[in-house]
Predict the structure.
Amino acid sequence: MSARRPEGANGWLSGILGALLMLLGVGLGAMTEQSAITSRMAFNRHGGEVLDLADAQGPQAGQHGYMVRVAGDIDVVEQPYDADFGQRINTPVLVRHVEMFQWREVRMGSDVHYEQDWVDRPVDAAGFARPAGHANPGAFPITGKQFDASLVKVGGFALSPPLLHELPGSDFITPSASKMPENLAASFSQNGKYLTTSANTSHPRLGDLRISWEVVPIQQVTVFARLDGDRLVPAADADDGKGFDVQLGDRRLVDVLPDVPEPPSMVAVRRVLAVLLAAFGALLLLWRRLPSDRALPVALGAGLLLTGAVAGVMWLGKDLQAAAFWFLAAVVGLAVAVWRLHGAMERR
């Protein structure tokens, strides 16, 4: 059994150093938790804790419900199809535009004149200042429409419709007239990137139609969203009111969420170091007051008690699970310290 050490001339120096080390440990723990809290609260504005899955090739177990960042080329698994015109395109979103050659009214100050042009909606000539001689055909026989691909992935993750519709960029494609059904092929002919009903494409007539298709190009994108099974969806509970983002190219998380600070590094190491510093400080205070076989566990318990209690208080009202974890750690530290102190008291 180890005997208690007698007080020496340097005992007060050990006491001061021990107190300083305990304060340093508690301070390091508080700074670490504050950084973690600041980062957590910032991420919560956008939906919660984020997993950076830029190099992943699909969802893994345990990732459900997390906000994630994924990057990669758009992969259209099931292409959209415009059955009316037989157009199937390798794009996540296909939009059919329909225009009619119509009269339109042009006002420049008090001057009013009329010209014929392609317009993507029916123009009601009844509202013209001079409707006589400027009547338009009325409703379109064919309307514009959007076609979404049934399955689009980025980095192995399927995109939900809200994310699909946020994919950036657009191009107009040249349609394939040979794929049109026979009934439409008799009415439409190809003119560059348009299918038109004009007999003379250089001189269209009133009521002629022209059809074009706009697509979202296949390109590299970065997606920030919540993982729901194997799909990326908006975070409905995000404080920013959006809960997702889609950007062109491979963008870092700090570029996608510029208002969120960099997550603290080496959090686990800093937490362990905080406990050890506080414990070593307690050991210096106890070393000359308790036997060595008692001082060490009591000091470790005291270090865990102090850092755990401070961290638990800091997490209150922000994350009850984190607060409960730290309070449990503090209780364990208290139990160890009391247990060994009680043993020391019994031996006296």
